[in-house]
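Database export, one record per block. Field names are fixed; values are copied verbatim from the stored entry.
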Amino acid sequence: TGKKAGKLLALILFFLHLTIQMRIDRLDGVGDVVWAEDYCLEGTVAGFFEGLTSGASKARKNIPQAAEILALLRTFENEEWLSLLEEWTKTYKPSGEELTLVLEKAVDHFHKLEGFLKNFQLDISYNNS
């Protein structure tokens, strides 16, 4: 349905935004924009899916299940991620400095994200609550 597809796209863009924003930092909090190491992806991805499944017993009309979203994200290849990145720039409007950094790091970020998603397991204890 159209509403479900719209919510799914919004969730995917939010997921992309989250994985990018967790990697953008400033030296000493106010200095140059820098890119955080790959280790931050583990907590970011786990937190995203835990957030999707917490309170899952409450009615969430037209929102796909976490397993559906994970399965879809696992199918994305570099081309799809780059298309989403273009949409992300329109939606979230990063600063010029941030955008330059994101574009420089995008292909590697997507490669790491693909590998992490491929091996990520939903925690049954919160997936079925």
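Remark 1: The helical segments are 2-21, 40-53, 66-75, 78-92, 96-119, 124-127.
Remark 2: The first helix runs from residue 2 to 21.
End of record.
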